[in-house]
User: Fold this.
Amino acid sequence: MIRKLYALCGTDRTRPFSPHVWKTKLSLMHKGLDFDVAPVGFTQIPRIEQGATKIVPLLRDGDRLVSDSFDIALHLEATYPERPPLFGGEGGKAAARFVEGWSQMTLHPMIGRIAIMDIHDRLDPVDRAYFRQSREQRFGKPLEAVAEAGQADIETFSAKLEPLRHMLKFQPFLGGDGPLFSDYIVFGALQWARIVSRQCLLADGDLVTAWFERCLDLHDGFGRSVTAA
Amino acid sequence: MIRKLYALCGTDRTRPFSPHVWKTKLSLMHKGLDFDVAPVGFTQIPRIEQGATKIVPLLRDGDRLVSDSFDIALHLEATYPERPPLFGGEGGKAAARFVEGWSQMTLHPMIGRIAIMDIHDRLDPVDRAYFRQSREQRFGKPLEAVAEAGQADIETFSAKLEPLRHMLKFQPFLGGDGPLFSDYIVFGALQWARIVSRQCLLADGDLVTAWFERCLDLHDGFGRSVTAA
Assistant:
């Protein structure tokens, strides 16, 4: 059986950028599970698998369909317990929700603003229209005004990584000695930035940069299969 | 054997406020372990147990002396594995370092600025002098100027709790269904604020407020043994 992963794409299908899909790809690699990728644009999502989902990643795993990167990780951990753990026990599973909260409420909004025009410009025309309309509704202003606000985020981004730096003084990964799903959560956000934007958000010599490079090396350098923008 | 916990105190020994000591007290309660508290002022710390530590909490547990709230939690988990877990496995232990990073790099600096004069005013005269000198050196400005900067922190504090709110949509504690050391880490910071400052940082109806109240209820309401300022 080959698993099928529906994954967001822009015009260039060789440069998948969705942070959530990166989390799931690394989760599948971590478990050593094969999968085929089915790239979809924003406006195709409601039509896949008979309207099974409004979001990607969506994973077809045999007769199971699971969406949302966290739910997919839970599904993989429950279904393949004999393979390397993604959470490292119940405490790790619970704490991963906090890591998700931190990544999505702190890093994602900043990267979303910093890279908003880059993301827009990488989409197919039909998806560009959807993206502009939905994001302008969410932010209450034109994309270009959001991008302008993003200039201030560039200055403050590094300071937001202090919790990671503190952790990295004690251990090489959020998962401890090796990576767990929590690492993939934060990696997904920074990989998204790396692929869509030329804005350098990680400085040389930063503990976070060294951790991110370690994550890029994982699973035979899978994260490097897409080059930086 | 009675354990001895050296704990920071101000002039009023019935109102211990150190966030780190609160983490350790709740860790000991969580494990169901008895302990006596030995209150010490800032300037007494270098003299306890023949100069064994520069920081409190310091726990004497039989012939072991352990300082630092995280190291004490690790010690308790390793020494009393048959009692309720503080980390919930290796993944939880690793992630707790990130929670510590978030709490100490995000919440602590804000609370430290907001409550700096409250803390100062609650100390013995000799400790006030030490506190002013060491904090003015750290901040590079008079305590009163730090307190003024803290006014801006009051406005932005609630937004900093978004990662917790995201997590609390899925589960009642950082530890999942019940509390783990990660909960005590964040609780310690907010309990510190609750005890030293009259500034209300948590709003009614907030998911974080409900979680904090649950934490205050733990272990027969141990957190409520000191009233709010």
Summary: Chain B has two domains: 3-79, 90-225.
